[in-house]
Amino acid sequence: MRVTVIGGGPAGMAAALSAKRAGAEEVLLLERAERLGGVLPQCIHTGFGVSYFKEDLTGPEFAERLERLVAKAGVEVWLNSIALQAFPDRQLLVSTRLGLRALRPDVLIFAVGARERPRGAIAIPGDRPAGVFTAGTAQYMTNIQGLQVGREFFILGSGDIGLIMARRFTLEGLIVHGVAELMPFPGGLSRNVQQCLRDYAIPLYLSHTVTGVRGKQRVEAVTVAPVDPNGYPLRDQERTYAVDSLILSVGLLPEAELLRQAGLTMAPETGGPAVDQYYQCEREGIFAVGNGVAIWDLADNVAETAEVAGRAAVLCPPGRGWARVEGRGGIRVVIPQRWRLEDRDLVLHFRAGKPTIAPRLRVTCKGQLLARRGYAALRPAEMEEIRIPAEKLAMVEAGDLVVLELEEGSGG
Amino acid sequence: MVGAAIFRELCRFPLRVLLLDQLHDVGGGASRANTAILHGGFDPLPGTLMSSLNVEGLRLWSSWSRQLDVEVEWCGSLVLATDDEELAAIGDLCLRGRKARVPTVFLLRDALLNREPNLAAEVKGGLFAPVSGLINPFQAVIALVGNGLANGGELALGERVLGLRKIPEGIEVQTSKRTLPTRFLFNAAGVEADHLMHLAGEDWFSITPRRGQYHVLDKSIGHLVRHVLFPAPRKLGKGIVVTRTIHGNLMIGPNAEDLDESDLLTTREGLQAVLAGAKKLIPFPFERYLVAQFSGLRAVSSTGDFHLGPAHAFPGVFHAAGIKSPGLTAAPAIARRLVEMWQERMDLAGHKEVIAQKMDWDPTFRFPPKLSECSLGDRDRLIRENPSYGRIVCRCEGISEGEVREAIRMQPGATDLDGIKRRCRPTTGRCQGGFCTPRLVEILAQERGAPLSSITKFGEASRLTWRDNREPSGCE
Ligand SMILES: Cc1cc2nc3c(=O)[nH]c(=O)nc-3n(C[C@H](O)[C@H](O)[C@H](O)COP(=O)(O)OP(=O)(O)OC[C@H]3O[C@@H](n4cnc5c(N)ncnc54)[C@H](O)[C@@H]3O)c2cc1C
Ligand SMILES: Cc1cc2nc3c(=O)[nH]c(=O)nc-3n(C[C@H](O)[C@H](O)[C@H](O)COP(=O)(O)OP(=O)(O)OC[C@H]3O[C@@H](n4cnc5c(N)ncnc54)[C@H](O)[C@@H]3O)c2cc1C
Predict the structure, then answer these.
(1) Is the Cβ atom of B296 under 6 angstroms away from ligand 2?
(2) A163 and A237 in one domain?
């Protein structure tokens, strides 16, 4: 069996590795960059690997470990090789430094990662000078290229990358004037809010947004205002910060283009393809893993779930049809969106739409309760899971709808 | 665009021609921020210069685009009416078109829906102008300048004209860098053309900058429209247009705001007006597909028309002023017309030798290869000859390292990030440079033999980074 994995980040490496270990004869890993690792090499902070390697590592260390395993297992790696086009029959067109290549593997695994939402996607008005960077781009330029992208910063969005960069700039001796977040709650993990902002006394302005950028050639100032409950800025309370850089951490979106070309439909809540519990998409032999499916919190989650896919790609257990899975009432994202009927427990990953204290979650099908669980708290920034025992799932039939929702009256 | 077209035309003749611009690249004024439509010519009032030069310019672009390797697409345009008043306005346009000999067809809703299935329910009828379309305005300017350079012209950038003085041999131009003697000066200074007219002693003419803001939208919704869609005409300009760009993005805009001073800001209100205007023609949640916003300044003249011709009291100076829309479309015709005026003068003065075209004048220009337009076989061959064509640096638009290097090496070459963008498109895709910016900085620094920290976006003060930590002293 020939397996081709597109994308050499933690997801792609873990999927390639597990496919090889599961017995695939030929596993090819394609990476468009000049090195493996995806975004990990630029994440020079710690916090990686605690569950996957049982050790707290930096991003580059996490990547290196996986890379070594991949090499040892005998996975073929092509660097500087980008999948340009993908077709529904798993044909691939790849551009390499040696020429174009056409491939048609038995199994295709997309591990293409995510991209950051840029300024244009949220239409921040004002001038268009140099000095507006997305957090990941600033991170690459700072940590990989060794460049100083600015001296005085304002950060819009409290996504994890923005929080990490607030700390990074501060450690470099640069000044971060503050972080504005449109929502009334932070977008990043609580641990990052504490360790990256509070510990360094960087102000976090919730329910605030950047209303304008000024500067003809390089950013000279940004204006920031609180927003009303509908997200409209209150211009009379606008404040001006004299900074030379605006850093955006306003969300990641799965890279969906190639998957769309392959004829896969995208789930609107995640922006990635709809997958089953083995991360198989709606077409046989096409899988998608990692941040290219949905945005996970940690590289560990990404690697672990990608392993599931790599193994399934080879040992593909036969299914008896599919049921749909949907989140409602306060549940924003559920993975998988399809359940391949089988006699095993099902783990659902989900994200709440807003912070909720002491909620109870219930999973039902055709009015029957499959699982129920209470949580101390749910936060949109944190992906949670719930396990449904196999015996409960026995009543679910092909075409049924499994619903995940917060119980009314629970939470606060 | 106008200056570049004049430059190309003048380089036909045995002259020394210098193209001067205050900016650090060509095509950095209004010509880079507009709707990029090749207008059909039914809109300007018949009898005006705008009308005749539009029609003539359109005809010239159909041959110039082939000679100069400039992307154009003849997709046709529709002017849409939502009520009786607007239907009447469209009727007037139809008559104007007839006078200007522009073929147009009036279509009722059903016929319109065949062409544009996503139209708003309110649209009652419209005017179809088949001979109109889209152009790549960045490429057009670069090709015109490149053609002039290849035919012996010269280019000076980052140099502003500050003053003009009459001298016995002609004109002395005072620039921000030097004093330049010249026999002739063509003023194609866009929104600042009135300022140059003042320098030449004329103050009867003035230009008001009128700002227009735009949203560029994702390519995945480019198929929403097939033609350029205009609303029926209003007082201020042509209203908010829904169109594709030549590269397949959807684009909506511009609104219209008269300004006291040139200011290229976008505003929340302006951008919202653009969304609202576009939804009148195509009801669609455009706000979910935003990619970029920008604004441009129209050079609205006090006379309501283009002004072309020799200066009243300054021999040797020729003006092209008040060149607002349809200035892109008309540019080749404007250049021809001005050069003819100059030729007449030279003829009268007995200088026949300089008005005969050079024997070796080459009308053509070719851009370096664009992978997206190559067949797979050609693409493969290119990569084998030069592996950098195999390395993609812009993932959204699929642009290779090789193409970026050629954009820097070509004449006129890119010297900054915006220059690369205008030549081969990286940073224009849906990630807006998030992925490619660090790579473009590296390539540009390598090609120019300059430190990474010296790379700019557009203009001297637009440095992307303050220092390179690998160089202990930085590049301050
Ligand atoms: C700033 C930041 C801080 C983080 N902090 C933490 C943390 O503290 N702890 C933690 O556990 N996690 C952290 N993460 C999250 C973690 O890095 C991601 O979850 C993980 O890298 C996602 O892995 P991936 O393989 O899905 O995507 P990526 O790492 O993005 O890899 C995708 C790869 O696919 C390649 N690719 C894409 N398209 C193609 C194509 N067409 N052809 C060939 N190759 C292609 C890309 O070049 C890339 O290498 C952080 C992330 C960031 C950005
Ligand atoms: C919002 C908008 C939409 C439009 N849409 C269309 C359309 O769809 N179709 C169409 O046909 N036309 C359109 N137009 C019109 C068209 O864009 C312009 O007419 C055309 O670009 C004008 O070209 P130009 O060369 O005169 O001006 P510019 O491109 O502005 O060039 C003038 C140049 O002169 C330089 N300069 C000025 N002063 C000096 C000085 N003192 N010293 C040195 N250099 C100087 C400037 O730096 C600039 O580069 C539109 C215009 C706008 C603003």
Answers:
(1) yes
(2) yes
Statement to judge: residues A23 and A90 lie in one domain: yes
Q: Answer yes or no: is A411 within a domain.
A: no
Range(s) of the domain holding residue B437: 375-454
Element (H, E) at B21: strand B18-21
Q: Which residue, A287, A316, A345, sits at the end of a domain?
A: A316
Check whether residue A237 and residue A160 sit in a common domain.
yes
Sheet holding B72-73, edge to edge: B37-38, B133-135, B72-73
- Taking contacts as CB-CB distances below 8 angstroms, the residues of chain B near A147 are 441, 452-453, 464-465, 467-469
Does any domain span residue A412? no
- CATH at B447: 1.10.10.1100
Instruction: Kindly state whether residue B158 falls inside one of the protein's structural domains.
Output: no
A148–B384 CB contact, under 8 Å: no
The total number of structural domains in chain A stands at 3
Q: A310 lies in which domain range?
A: 2-115+253-316
**Helix runs in A74-188, H state only:** 119-122, 135-139, 160-171
Residue A206 lies in a domain: yes
Where is the domain boundary, A297, A316, A335? A316
Q: What are phi and psi of A71, to 5 degrees?
A: -65, -45
Residues of A within 8 A of B266 (CB-CB) are 123, 125-126, 128
In this structure, chain A runs to a length of: 412
Ligand 2 atom nearest B330 alpha carbon: 11
B326 lines ligand 2 (CB under 6 A): yes
Show residues of chain B in contact with A151, CB under 8 Å.
Answer: 466
How large is the ipTM? Answer: 0.94
Count CA atoms closer than 13 A to A28's CA, side-chain side.
20
Catalytically annotated residues of B: 39
Evaluate if residue A411 carries a pLDDT over 70: no
Record: contact A97-B390, CB cut-off 8 A: yes
Give the distance from residue A217's alpha carbon to the nearest chain B alpha carbon, in angstroms. Answer: 4
Q: What does pTM read for this prediction?
A: 0.95
pLDDT digits (tens, 9 = 90+) for A91-131: 999 999 999 999 999 999 999 999 999 999 999 999 999 99
Distance (Å) from CA B22 to ligand 1 centroid: 43
Task: Domain count for chain B, please give it.
Answer: 1
User: Distance between CA B254 and CA B240 in Å, rounded?
Assistant: 5
pLDDT at B474: 46
Residue B446 in contact with partner chain A when CB distance is under 8 A? no
- R_g of chain A, CA atoms, integer Å: 22
Residue B151 domain-assigned?
no
H or E element: which one contains B369? none
Task: Return d(Cα B16, Cα B10) in angstroms, integer.
Answer: 9
pLDDT single digits (tens) A9-39: 999 999 999 999 999 999 999 999 999 999 9
Interchain contact B432–A (C-beta under 8 A): yes
Whether residue B46 is preceded by a cis peptide bond, meaning omega within 30 degrees of 0, is no
Instruction: Report the CATH number at residue A338.
Output: 2.60.40
Shared domain check, A197 and A111 = no
A97–B431 C-beta distance less than 8 A: no
Query: How far is ligand 1, taken at its centre, from the CA of residue A38, in Å?
Result: 5
Ligand 2 atom closest to residue B329's alpha carbon, by position in its atom list? 11
